[in-house]
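Please fill in the sequence for the structure shown.

STRUCTURE ENCODING:
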């Protein structure tokens, strides 16, 4: 298990206790080995996919220890223990965490400087109880909000008329970059006897190829037979590519089937549909935007 960032604080300080300068990357590797992390744990990423979890947690442990005056960061990517850090280790503490650091005047002042008193209590409680870094708390909170929105969005889509759903699907594909405008790129067929094809869209603005669409606003799972029928319809049109989109799901047999045939068929289930609608702003609106910024050390090195 990957240790939380507070659990990493004391081991990090112990690694630096020899008084030498240590590279951050090497320190992360040593801590990973000390906690016997498996390769998949070393490579586990934050929800954003931007950074390994262990790197993020060691980074925040370093930041908190630095703000407490227990370690120094003389150059980018370089760490060493401070005199205050050495003195603290001499007392042989059993654990260093946020609650402990708040007993140190310098850290307490810094921790309270970026928020109101009420916000400070909320932030500290979240850090201590969850063991997650501030960045992790933000990312997991975002995922929770996104998951709730996806659920509400899918329920709304299921309540819409089938004809509207077909238009929605073409709108989504246009937002994803297929073709250009609806007039130029997408066409909803939606007629009886369409052979299982509900619409078509140009693959690009030049119309070099056409993608055929099957859209099913269903509660029940799509069957392998319906996917086979769609594949047959594509063959009848001499089509090379198709997208089957549903508000429900597919059996494993259908997923295996589409990987073994020509034409190429992509299956999109309800969960993926909702996620794509959120990503490409179809049927959703932005409520609030938070910009998460970092220190631009390159800027200061130019001085």
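FILLED IN BY: designer on duty
SEQUENCE:
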């Amino acid at each position: 298990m990957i240790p939380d960032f507070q659990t990493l604080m004391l081991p990090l300080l112990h690694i630096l206790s020899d008084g030498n300068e240590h590279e951050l990357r090497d320190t992360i590797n040593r801590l990973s080995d000390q906690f016997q992390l498996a390769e998949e744990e070393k490579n586990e990423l934050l929800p954003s996919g931007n950074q390994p979890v262990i790197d993020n947690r060691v980074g925040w442990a370093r930041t908190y220890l630095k703000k407490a005056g227990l370690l120094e960061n003389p150059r980018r990517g370089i760490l060493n223990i401070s005199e205050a850090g050495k003195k603290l280790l001499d007392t042989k503490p059993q654990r260093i965490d946020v609650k402990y650091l708040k007993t140190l005047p310098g850290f307490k002042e810094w921790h309270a400087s970026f928020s109101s008193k009420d916000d400070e209590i909320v932030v500290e409680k979240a850090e201590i109880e969850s063991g997650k870094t501030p960045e992790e708390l933000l990312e997991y909170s975002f995922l929770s909000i996104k998951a709730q929105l996806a659920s509400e969005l899918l329920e709304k889509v299921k309540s819409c008329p089938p004809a509207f759903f077909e238009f929605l699907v073409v709108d989504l594909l246009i937002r994803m970059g297929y073709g250009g405008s609806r007039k130029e790129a997408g066409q909803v067929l939606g007629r009886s006897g369409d052979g299982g094809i509900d619409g078509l869209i140009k693959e690009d603005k030049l119309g070099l190829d056409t993608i055929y669409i099957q859209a099913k606003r269903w509660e029940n799972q799509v069957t392998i037979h319906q996917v086979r029928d769609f594949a047959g319809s594509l063959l009848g049109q001499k089509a090379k590519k198709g997208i089957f989109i549903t508000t429900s799901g597919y059996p494993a047999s259908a997923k295996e089937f589409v990987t073994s045939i020509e034409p190429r068929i992509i299956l999109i289930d309800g969960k993926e549909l909702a996620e794509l609608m959120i990503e490409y702003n179809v049927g959703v609106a932005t409520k609030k935007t938070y910009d998460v910024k970092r220190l631009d050390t390159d800027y200061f090195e130019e001085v």
